[in-house]
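Design request, tokens follow.
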């Protein structure tokens, strides 16, 4: 963790604003705007890009991926520029929590993978790129989005240490743990051999 130099009030304000930004359910908004239905009733019911892809609309899935990643990245970049490095980590965590537990959807949100990667890219871009590459390589080999997310999340703290970004290791561990917890059902399906692969239209 970086040294805490910002005032408690500033950090609280950053936390609230970042959470509200993270709470915006772009997948739900985009699918409704395009007349694709309620994303929570499609496929796995998740609000992320992988489930948007199950609608068959690749453009909507790509837009969801970019915007969900941007929630974490933008929160981090603004907090760092306006307040400082400590606020940047608070912003990243709270934007991530906003995606997982959005106030607008009764605190039932997504699994946070895109927001996780966007947060890492903004906090320390070499670590973010390594995590993205890990996801992409695992997805190319297995075609399982969930497994790719789990591998990328678990290795993120390792990448942070290896790339000399020790100040974000604690946050990377916390975010990775949350990603794993949110994928508990996916882990069970992976073990049972029933997990849908990328692009499948049913859960």
């Amino acid at each position: 963790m970086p040294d805490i130099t910002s005032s408690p009030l500033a950090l609280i304000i950053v936390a609230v604003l970042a959470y509200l930004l993270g709470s915006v359910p772009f997948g739900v908004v985009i699918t409704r705007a395009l007349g694709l239905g309620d994303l929570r009733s499609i496929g796995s019911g998740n609000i992320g890009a992988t489930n948007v892809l199950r609608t068959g609309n690749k453009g909507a899935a790509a837009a969801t991926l970019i915007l969900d990643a941007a929630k974490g990245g933008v929160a981090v970049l603004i907090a760092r520029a306006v307040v400082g490095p400590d606020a940047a980590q608070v912003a990243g965590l709270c934007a991530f929590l906003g995606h997982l537990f959005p106030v607008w959807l009764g605190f039932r949100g997504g699994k946070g993978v895109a927001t996780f990667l966007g947060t890492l890219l903004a906090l320390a871009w070499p670590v973010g790129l390594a995590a993205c590459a890990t996801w992409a390589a695992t997805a190319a080999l297995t075609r399982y989005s969930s497994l790719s997310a789990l591998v990328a999340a678990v290795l993120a703290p390792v990448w942070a240490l290896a790339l000399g970004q020790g100040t974000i290791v604690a946050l990377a561990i916390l975010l990775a743990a949350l990603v794993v917890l949110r994928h508990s059902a996916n882990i069970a399906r992976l073990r049972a051999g029933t997990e849908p692969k990328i692009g499948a239209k049913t859960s």
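Comment from the thread starter after seeing the answer: thanks! The chain is about 70% helix and 0% strand.
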